[in-house]
Amino acid sequence: QGTRDHPPASVALRDRLLAAAVACFKRHGAAAIDTPVLELRETLTGKYGEDTKLIYELQDQGGELLALRYDLTVPFARYLAMNKITHMKRYHVAKVYRRDNPATTRGRYREFYQCDFDIAGQFDPMIPDAECLKIVHEILSDLQLGDFLVKVNDRRILNGVFAACGVPESQFIAACSTVDKLDKMPWEDVKKEMVGEKGLSPEAADRIGEYVQLHGGLDLIERLLQDPKLSQNKLAKEGLGDMKLLFEYLTLFGITGKISFDLSLARGLDYYTGVIFEAVLLQQENDHVEEPASVGSVAGGGRYDGLVGMFDPKGRKVPCVGVSIGIERIFSILEQRVKASGQKVRTTETQVLVATPQKHLLAARLKLISELWDAGIKAEMLYKKDPKLLKQLQYCEDTGIPLAAIIGEQELTDGVIKLRDVATREEVRM
Amino acid sequence: MAEEAAVRAQAEAVRRLKQDKADPDEIAKEVAKLLEMKAQLGGDEGKHKFVLKTPKGTRDYNPKQMAIRERVFNAIITCFKRHGAEVIDTPVFELKETLTGKYGEDSKLIYDLKDQGGELLSLRYDLTVPFARYLAMNKITNIKRYHIAKVYRRDNPAMTRGRYREFYQCDFDIAGQFDPMIPDAECLKIVHEILSDLQLGDFLVKVNDRRILDGMFAVCGVPDSKFRTICSSVDKLDKMPWEEVRSEMVEEKGLSPEAADRIGEYVQLHG
Fold first, then answer.
1. Number of compact structural domains in chain B
2. What is the CATH number of the domain that holds B124?
3. What is the CA radius of gyration of chain A?
4. What is the mean predicted confidence (pLDDT) over B61-77?
5. Which residues in chain A have Cβ-Cβ distances shorter than 8 Å to B182?
6. Inter-chain residue contact B58 with A64, CB threshold 8 Å
7. Do A135 and A87 have their domain in common?
8. Which pTM value belongs to this model?
9. Which of A36, A165, A172, B111 could be joined to B58 by an S-S link, Cβ 3.0–4.6 Å?
């Protein structure tokens, strides 16, 4: 449940997507690593907050207690701590496992790919963070998914807003997770949850509401830097200052057209400490989507400075920032589009079919195809001793093979082959 | 340091209480005190006990290793594609019942997932059984497919010999009713292309046929019931000399010395 086989057409499309993401990561100088799908249970414990119950555990079969990895970030932190690495720019494309409720129409599976790019190390502020956003922009543009928006916020600004609005520190996380729902629920419902379920005072909720419905660019940042309540909060000032720096760098990268500083962005995971961001596709009119909310986010990430320190025996910190590309969601969208357009996707890359029109020519076929393979040409033949020419040509049409190399008795005598263009039926002797 | 000593003392006190089967309320009180002391100590306690490693029999791949791996996979995939194979992918776990009864003795090496209230699952042991399941599920009668993915076996990992519990398999299979030996020949051509391409040096592909082996056993007087066990002895000829294999067949597997000698005349042949 929550898993699926990937038939050839699916895999072909998916591999193309992954290749596009990897090409971008490489362009930015990232190196690849891989980690086991299994981790010690204790490695994953205490890292995912509420989501811990979604981890797949392995049965105790008398050895170590194991679990399937939930994401690629915690394994990365473990890898850094294990190898005492302080600086690294890495990408990792692999499957992760979550015992979610797979609403499979929304593209949510229990086994799915993640494409992660992370920069670990102590550097000057916001430069690596800006590069992560540039990468998201490049990949989403490259995949031609249509218009998209990258929302950016900062955990420090959020916490600063909560403090300024009179929320007690112990309720920051609860407030955060409620604000996070603003992309799915209107403010009225969010406010109700804050007051009714999470026990915030209605005044505090109102004050929060004034802030979290704001979004914009450098102008908004400047305005908030002048805000009398926020400017008194050290954390908020720090966050706003870095946000301003970030936007200056993004302007130099030429991508601010698709970036929005959005105070309602909260992001689920506990381990974020600074900038957080999320990319969403802006719905096209001709997209067949079941529910408007199902477009969902296609990339997300942020800064997490404390995670590696949780693994290091001496608690040494390695600050990190990274992004995860939601390849499965993008894949679902593209798959739907391909289906809707009626496009036929080839599942092989074969260039030529080696065919014989008469009987007793298997040997000639085997010899020729071997020559083609040895020369690096992608070739196929039917596994029949004496196939009919029509059947062979039909096979070409069915699988999209563009050319047929035909050797019959005449060609053998003349020492040539006949190359036929399957679509146009033109033939050339060579 | 003093706090840690205090925590240890408290832990010891709790242990003693439990050993002496003291009043459960008192135990609960002391345990609560212990937990509070630990919490106040902060995350340090956890870090001392923490083991930083990958599970037994598994390993990370660093960038250098990844570069080599990528090169090897490219060579392999290029070859599979050159032969017109399609690629499929299957989930890393299968229903436990899908894998049951397919691997004989090796079934004990399968990783099972904990029963967490849903379906009973196991990690795949190879790519062939999932392939067979895929064919049956989709009612496919003809396909040429490759599948490159990791499989999982709770082996005894002799790490230096390159034997892990999590490792890649690169499979190429042709399913379907065809004229004899043509697909079989293509499989061997593929092995030849890949091994040549990777420039590993000189190599040899040994070929035989189960039907020839079984026919030979029959002709040499091996009882039908002993075919498989004799087969696995013969299989050891690449690691042991004939004398030892013969001993095993006669002494351990109860084969008559005459039959063993007759087998010996055949199995040492190659050409």
1. 3
2. 3.30.930.10
3. 28
4. 95
5. 362, 366, 383-385
6. no
7. yes
8. 0.82
9. A36
**A95 shares contact with chain B (CB less than 8 Å):** yes
Test mutation, B56, B81, B89, chain A, max A CBs within 10 A: B89
Q: Which of B:29-58 have CB within 8 Å of A? A: 43-44, 46-48, 50-56, 58
Whole-complex ipTM = 0.82
E strands, A242-388, where?
259-262, 275-281, 297-303, 320-325, 352-355, 379-380
B119 touching A, CB under 8 A?
Answer: yes
Residue A240's domain comprises 8-341
Picking from B198, B218, B252, the residue at the C-terminal end of a domain is B198
> Number of structural domains, chain A?
2
Place of tokens 């690495």: A85
Residue to mutate among B49, B77, B82, with most A CBs inside 10 A, is B82
Q: Check: CB of residue A136 under 8 Å from CB of residue A116.
A: no
Residues A89 and A211 reside in one and the same domain = yes
Identify which of B70, B81, B152 has the shortest CB distance to residue A349: B81
Q: Which domain holds residue B24?
A: 1-41
The mean pLDDT value of chain B amounts to 87
Which structure tokens are listed for B45? Answer: 């306690």
User: Residue B40: its pLDDT value, please?
Assistant: 62
Examine the domain organization and report whether B178 and B76 are in the same domain: yes
Smallest CA-to-CA distance from A147 within A284, A261, A337, A332 is with: A284
CA separation, residue A301 to residues A96, A115, A152, A171, A176 (Å): 16, 11, 10, 23, 16
Q: Do A311 and B85 touch (CB under 8 A)?
A: no
Does a structural domain hold residue A3? Answer: no
> For residues A244 and A225, is the Cβ–Cβ distance under 8 A?
yes
Which residues neighbour A308 within 8 Å (Cβ) at sequence distance 6 or greater?
Answer: A77, A80, A81, A120, A316, A317, A318, A320
**Residues of A within the annotated binding site for L-histidine?**
71-73, 98, 114, 118, 267, 271-272
Mean pLDDT of A356-380: 96
For residues B63-69, give the mean pLDDT: 95
Long-range Cβ contact pairs of B237-240 (< 8 A, separation 24 or more)? B237/B267, B237/B268
A32: nearest CB among B44, B66, B88 = B66
User: Domain for residue B204, yes or no?
Assistant: no
If you search the block for the tokens 């409720």, which residue do you land on? Answer: A101
Give the A:B interface size as CB pairs under 8 Å: 168
